[in-house]
Amino acid sequence: MGTRLGKQTLRxxxxxxxQAWASIAGAKEGNGPMGRYFxxxxxxxxxxEKSFEKAESxxxxxxxxxxxxxxxxxxxxIQYIFAGDLLNQCIAASYxxxxxxxxxxxxxxxxxxxxxxxxxxSLMVEGGFAERTVCITSSxxxxxxxxxxxxxxxxxxxxxxxxxxxxxxxGVLVGNSGSGPRIxxxxxxxxxxxxxxxxxxxxxxxxxxxxxxxxAHFTETGLAHDYYDMVITGDLGIxxxxxxxxxxxxxxxxxQEILEDCGTMIYDxxxxxxxxxxxxxxxxxxxxxxxxxxxxxxxELNKILLVCTGALHSPSSIQQGESIPAIAHAVGIEMIS
Length: 337
Known about the structure:
The chain has 337 residues and is an alpha/beta fold. Helix content is 34%, strand content 23%.
């Protein structure tokens, strides 16, 4: 059973294993620096479907199929699936997994959903309630723009602080045995709201939440600041990453040399014109299930802390002038002999 280390952090004593992982990304993501790490890159944003929303559901469905295939298991071998996305009522996830007949938990953590799902999935395994769980999420540039900002046909200009929603899906199979990367610590985030109201400046809204969770993780675990090879936030982008670095330094958390961000890794921001970088649930999901787990499995990385960040607003809350609540969840992943 796990051990509580503080208000937000648990140590998972059985070290649930990431047995398999898969990622599918869009053409823009495939043309970026991480493109060679994805299992599949689609060239058609409709993915052969009639709408962007149907395409996003297909992304989850096909990613789930790849996870099961790579893990050499069937849907019947999975006790629970934890999945979510950015669309209303999490329709990408629910439509994407509806044919699998796997017991389903639909999650909404915005862009923190990958870490949220991994925390819950690993706790099910740690507690002995499941032998295997699947944790998966998705996002799609076109469906997210239509829901949260403007239809693409409007052709609006994007301010410098804006980010590009990643088209893709990533997920992992978490189980109680195997030799893959292991989930050792989880830190659940708290909602942090600094009064940001600009939906085109997610980095500023989420950076304080990332700082809060990272600070809690190191404080409650007692780990040295250089314990991890890399601490990776989910999608703060260039602007948010700089804010997070400053806030962490003010808190005495000196990890600036190992701090990275999936949103700054996934695109060549200058060449691909993505302003502050990537965002969306799939941003951290495809970087994890593509680049990071590949590096861990090859022991080119041995210990990482994935800190997925999310902005918990909605179109209605923004239209009503509400500020943007943010959250960050952290998962410590290690290669253990």
